[in-house]
Every structure is written in C-alpha cells, then in structure tokens.
Amino acid sequence: QVQLVESGGGLVQPGGSLRLSCAASIAMTFSVNAMGWYRQAPGKQRELVATITSSGSTNYADSVKGRFTISRDNAGNTVGLQMNSLKPEDTAVYFCNADVFSTSLGTKRYWGQGTQVTVSS
C-alpha cells in the first residue's frame, strides 16, 4: 500500500553536489504528512538529516545546515534533498521516510530502501 523509492545517490568529490529524490506511492485513501531524510554511516546509528512537513516547514541537522536543502512536491508525494559542498563525512546510506495517514491504520512511518552517497577524491 505504501512504497518509497529513492534515487540519485552516487560517488562525488569533496565540494561537489548531488540531488536525491524519493517518490512515495500510496493508496488513494492515504495521505502523506511529514517526509524526511536520514542517513547511516558504517558503524554508526541512523541520524536525522532533514525533514519537511506538508505545509513546508523544514528542520535540518546542524551538520548540514547551509549546505543541504530539502523540498517536496505534495501533488506527487515526492521529496528531494539537494546536497552541496559535500564532505567526506557526508558519506552514508541515505534513507527517505514518510509519515502516512489512513483512517484504518492511523499514522505510520515508512522507509525507503536507501541509496549510497560516497564523497571521496
């Protein structure tokens, strides 16, 4: 009933840019509330990168403020993450998520499969 599909990861040099995208496929009776991006580096816990509400309010981790920009298209249930001035410490698997509401299930959080971002020279 809910699928999140990410795209846009890859290898980039320090100082470079990448854009991640995530599309949520949902049943017609469902609605998407907040969406966001998390990341997990090897040997570390998954951490928040950025979130955006359905009204467009955003929240960023301190480590990415001023470099990353989250955006969304409510009509298409998509969320993007523009990543600029990338650093080696941004290397991680990036996961998108969506808080999806339905009258039958209430609000549940769903996750994408993850996309690898590697920042290296």
What key phrases describe this protein's structure?
7-stranded mixed β-sheet, 11 strands, elongated, 4-stranded antiparallel β-sheet, mainly beta
Notes on the protein architecture:
Helix content is 0%, strand content 59%. With 121 residues, the protein is mainly β. The strands form 2 sheets. Strands 2, 4, 5, 6, 9, 10 and 11 form a 7-stranded mixed sheet that branches. A 4-stranded antiparallel sheet has the order 1-3-8-7, with no helix packed on it. It is elongated and about 50 Å long.
Topology, element by element:
Blueprint lengths: L1 E6 L2 E3 L5 E9 L4 E10 L6 E6 L5 E3 L7 E6 L4 E6 L8 E11 L3 E6 L3 E5 L2
Parallel strand pairs: 2-11
Antiparallel strand pairs: 1-3, 3-8, 4-5, 4-9, 5-6, 7-8, 9-10, 9-11
Q: What integer value in Å does the Rg equal?
A: 14 Å
Tally of strands: 11
**Structural class, please?**
mainly beta
Mean pLDDT over the full residue set: 95
Quick summary of this structure?
With 121 residues, the chain is mostly beta strands. The chain contains no helices and eleven strands.
